[in-house]
Amino acid sequence: MKKRHEEISLHYVDDLVPVTPIKINTWYSKWSAISSILIFIMSLVIGFRSDLFDLIYQWDYLISIGGLFILFLASSWYSFLSGIPGRINEKTRGLVFTILLIYCVSQLIYSGYFSNLILVPHLHTSGQILKEGLICSSLIIIFSFIPNVFLLFILNKLESLNIKVSVFLAMFGTLSIGMLILQFHCPIDYVIHRILGHGFFVLSGISLLYPLYQRLFTFFRLLNDN
Amino acid sequence: LISGEVLMEREGFNPDWPKLMAETQQGLKESYKRLLDEISPVLYKYIKKRISNADDVDDVYQTVLMKVHRARATYDLTVPFEPWMFAIARNSIADFFKANKRHRETFSSNIGQEGILIELSVEYGDEKMIFNEAISQMTPKQKEAFILTKVNGLSIEDAAEKTGLSITAFKARTFKAYKIFKTAFLDNPL
After folding, report:
1. How far apart, in whole angstroms, are the C-alpha atoms of residue B159 and residue A61?
2. Does B72 touch chain A if contact means CB atoms closer than 8 Å?
3. Residue A65 to residue B189: CA distance in whole angstroms
4. Do B65 and A8 touch (CB under 8 A)?
5. CB-based contact B29 A13, cutoff 8 Å
6. pLDDT tens-digit profile, chain B (190 residues)
7. Are B156 and B170 spatial neighbours (Cβ–Cβ below 8 Å)?
8. How many CB atoms lie within 10 A of CB B72?
9. At B108, which helix (H) or strand (E)?
10. Burial of B185 per CB tally in 10 Å (0-12, 13-18, 19+)
11. CA–CA distance, B12 with A19 (Å, rounded to integer)
12. Angle at A47 between CA A42 and CA A51, to 5 degrees
């Protein structure tokens, strides 16, 4: 048995090449800085909502933006941490759920208060509700896609022990980028639109895309191994 | 109960490992050889404690070494080495059990962080499956309370003192854990 262990060890010793130790804080700082710039640029491209300067004085709107920023920074940070063995434990898992809860509450406060509890505007048909919701959710997913691919690529340089958790956190971290861009852009404020177009449809779409993300992750890993 | 430090001592932990890993990251083969020679028996013993089939132990051991090799760039010198290494080993064992759900032979419960490690062997059969299921439904704190009282046989007073809780709080926690355990057996009559 000892001889066999030595053989395996020697195999890895022969394969040894120098590696640069991964500085997770540096990587994360760069990632969040680039993503913040992306949010700003994409917001400029798609255009800000006309009443944005009035909104920034309203606490419920600021809470919704804050909630999304927390989701963006915390989820991506924990997705980075999940790539380092031994850094994610039960406590941090609890924290992730707290972050998601903060996000949900902030969005509900926004939907409820800012929209003056208008569920659906008068004369709005279900077709219109659906169309507006689908447009917003599609835009959120589209804006999130490229940062997500980029994040998955970085994560593959790390050694995630739980791919599902890493992909899930990366997905939420990047979804919040799309949500933030739309939060600055979308002028439709009635409750149903916020819940469907900025929440439910996005989560449904992303759950369909989840297997694709996982395949992408595995693909990058294969590229790394080769 | 075995404290983290005692466990490391027993497992043959060497304080030079972080330094050896740093040299490994720089590509020094001699250091890597020494590191692998020292961690290999520790890892093998760690895996063997949890999986009894020798072939399976070998498979998991090789997976762990492969992951350690692949993940060497992720080791940060400023943090202790052993949580990093044991996280890889623990995860590989968990993956093995996930892939072989029907063939679990030993249930290991790692409570808390590096602090307390409890080994609990159970007999073959349906009882084991239900037992594992019940334990997995408990929160880590309930699990700890349950194992201290029902497996290690401590009195409520002693166990409460050990965990630093009041007797009432500890009783409530044990009761909840026992309830989960009872429900699991009632839902799955043997």
Report:
1. 49
2. yes
3. 52
4. yes
5. yes
6. 344 444 554 456 677 888 889 999 998 989 999 999 888 888 888 898 888 778 888 888 888 998 899 888 999 888 888 888 988 998 888 888 887 764 444 444 444 333 333 334 333 455 666 777 778 788 888 888 888 887 777 788 888 888 877 777 787 788 788 878 877 777 665 5
7. yes
8. 21
9. strand B107-111
10. middle
11. 27
12. 130
Q: Which residues in chain A have their CB less than 8 angstroms from residue B71's CB?
A: 85, 158-159
Token representation of residue B28 = 């020094």
Cα–Cα–Cα angle for A163, A5, B97, rounded to 5 degrees:
35
| Crossing angle of helices A163-185 and A126-155, rounded to 10° | 130
Search chain B and give the residue with CA nearest A24: B74
Segment (H or E) for B116: strand B116-120
DSSP-derived secondary structure letter, A89: -
Helix A90-109 / helix A59-81 crossing angle, nearest 10 deg: 160
CA-CA distances (angstroms) from residue B89 to A195, B59, B100, B121?
Answer: 42, 12, 16, 19
Q: Which of A195, A197, A190, A198 is nearest to A115 (CA)?
A: A190
Count how many residues are written for chain B. 190
Which residues from chain A sit within 8 angstroms of residue B67, using beta carbons?
Answer: 85, 159, 161
Length reported for chain A: 226
Distances (CA, A) of A57 to A12, A67, A112, A164, B24: 60, 16, 17, 39, 55
- CA-wise closest residue to B40 among A14, A12, A22, A15: A12
Contact by Cβ (8 Å): A174, A151: yes
Closest CA to B49 of B7, B101, B82, B83: B7
Taking CB atoms and an 8 Å cutoff, what residues of chain A touch B84?
84-86
**Residue of A20, A21, A157 with shortest CB distance to B76:** A21
Decide if B75 and A21 are in contact by the 8 Å CB cutoff.
yes
Neighbours of A119 (CB within 10 A): 12
**Strand ranges inside chain A, DSSP E:** none
